[in-house]
């Protein structure tokens, strides 16, 4: 199993715990956690693309 598959549950857990420690309403927690989950994945994809571009033809 590829280690990158662990990024999805890790990002979900981080976003849920972060938002649960900030808000009390379950609707707000889930809404903001979903948005934060997507932001984390987009940020990691940008970093991955940058690393792939920098390591091209090494």
Describe the structure.
- With 58 residues, the chain is mainly alpha-helical.
- It has one domain (3-55).
- The protein has two helices and no strands.
- Helix 1 packs across helix 2 (26-55).
What does the oligomeric state look like here? single chain
Overall tally of domains: 1
> Helicity, in percent?
over 70%
Which geometry do the CA atoms define?
elongated
Order of helices and strands: HH
Q: Which structural class do the helices and strands define?
A: mainly alpha
Average pLDDT value?
95
Which range does the strand content fall in?
under 5%
Annotation field: number of helices: 2
How many beta-strand segments?
A: 0
Radius of gyration using CA atoms only: 15 Å
Instruction: Give the biggest beta sheet.
Output: none
Q: What is the CA-CA span between the terminal residues? A: 26 Å
Low-confidence stretches: none
Quick rundown:
The protein has 2 helices and no strands.
Top keywords for this entry?
58 residues, mainly alpha, 0% strand, transmembrane helix
Topology readout:
Blueprint: H1 7-20, H2 26-55
Helix pairs in contact: 1-2
